[in-house]
Design brief:
heterodimer; A: alpha/beta; eight-stranded mixed beta sheet; 5 helices; 9 strands; B: five-stranded antiparallel beta sheet; 16 helices
Chain lengths: ~230, ~475
Amino acid sequence: MNNLLDHLKNKGWIWQADFTQPLPITTQPVPDDLDKYVRGGLKEHALVEIHSQIGIGEIRLLLPRLAANGQDHRLLVWVAPPHKINGECLHQAGVDLSRVLILHPRDGKEALWAAEQCLKSGTCHSVLLWHGDIEVAQAKRLQQACQQGRAQLFLLRTRQSISQPLPVSLSLQLEAHAEGLQIKVTKCRGSWPPAPFILNMRQRWPKLCLPQPTQPSANVIPLHRAS
Amino acid sequence: MTPLWLYLDFPSLQLDSLYQEQASCPVIILSKECNQVIQLNTQAYHHGVRVGMGLGSAAALHKDLQVIEYRQELETAKLAEIAQWLYFVTSDIAFWSPNGLLLRVQHMLSMYGGLPSYWQALKDRLSPLKLTMRYACGASPLGARLLARSGHNLISQDPELLREKVSLCTLEQTDLPHSMCQKLTRVGIRRLKELMNVPPGELAKRFDSQLVTYIGKLQGTFHHPVDFYHPPTTFSQYLELMYEIDSSPILLHPIKRLLNDLERFLRLRDKLATVLEFRFSQRDSDAISLTVCSAQGEYQAQQWQSLVSLKLENLVLAQPVYGIQLAVTHMQAKQAQANDLFAGKQGQMNHRQLLSLLQARLGTNAVSGLQLRDDFRPEYSSGYCRPFERLDKQDWPIPALRPSLLLAPHRPLNEKVSLLQGPERIQTGWWDHQPIDRDYFIARNIQGQWLWVYRTRNNQWYIQGLFS
């Protein structure tokens, strides 16, 4: 019986309440938008996987977290972003641009290598990695590198892969929503994933939300069920 | 402090620097100018070959005699190598071309606590080189040289003894020209004693200035200027491989040896190297150059090794390599790095080391930083730059909400979107012939993507950014 338990524990298939290892961030903890919904918010998860269509607010979701992580003057690394990163936006969000590195690796293998080096060097607070297909073993390596270098990895994936789930701490699926983002947590290490919720971004990004409907639009014609 | 000099004479320097496997047969080094044997090994000696023989008579004594031409530049190079090697033990070294080294001893004695222990340290240092050596101390540079070349092998500090030994030397053993020796022999002078006992004034009356200067320098009454050796300031080393290598990962093993030498070189000087230049000599094509950079500067062989191995992964060898040259031209002084003691262990490296690592593998252009520029045109106001460039202006006003991702080139707007914010007119850039005249809007498409679109004067619509 004990053997079986040990086996399960070693494989990481069983979770025990006393097993959580929060990231030892030295700076003051900054509250997170996600704190209300997800246990530990974004900050206590080393490897966060985000499934999202591009351009619906996936980076805006992370920006407050990145700015807060950057208080210890370590580096923020963007690995293989799909488009050019705009410094103005990061500057607006309070990110120190002299502490930003952008890497353009030739292929996915190099991207993984670069992300791992950055994570385990201990000189980066966060790494954002765009990578299509990542394997379980690779994700485990990245997770270890995060622990080694006290860094956070945000893995951004555009298409939801059908393959087996990755051993990540937190996995989010983002959908566009009029008020901000609709977030479905598929995995949250340390607790049950909460029910899908809507993250209201109106306060942070008032210009990037649909105007609140004051009255039903005249264009909408209610359809009556044929009796 | 009485001056004391030590002269090391290497009579068969070129022979000693040859490969050892040739020692089984008789070898002679022949001087081309005078057609005389000037160096020979023990096998040649046993067959009756002697120094000063002509090539004909030497060749007649053994049929398999190996004859090697004397090359002075080889001996000079070897001598420089010995000097560099000895520099770890003693400070004042002077070359005496072509095959002698002169050491100034008196300043080293207090450090080593006496002549015997100093000599022991020198001998221990020299023994791995396996050189034939004659040596002697002397009160003057010429005296030490004279005693060493006459084979005294004398280590002593006693000025009386040294003077006596010098005075007993014959004129033929000195550096005086042959004609002068003959002239002196004719007047009955055979040994230096007879010249040294004459007061300098009397000597000057009877003989020419050359002899007077020689005797004065020999006795230490005249000043003898000496140029001391200074170790080279740059590192350059060539390694000839024992066998040819055609696979780039295997090259790392010989490179390790070079890097270890480099580490010792840098550590003694308390310097860091920032750029290493390798040259791989190839058999049938031009040499390949490989430059490895470290943004921070390194001296440790291990750190360099990991950077070099990343570079080697991308290196393709068309031809086998037979020699490696490592040159270091850029060096900088070591600087202390201030790390926060209370922030805990920061990992294995600092951010400049990380940058070197990334640049070594991905290429220098694949790693960039981010910078704001003083321009209203969105394609110029933010740009990629060299990593870690600091913004001069801390407070940089951003005119309005800007997207996090910028498309380059801009994509024509082909779908139905709803414009939610705007317009924001940007009309500028007339000064450098890339003017823009656009109205920017924030738009949302059916999939919920937030787009930054603009309309030109001709009513054409483009997407420039994503509010990701």
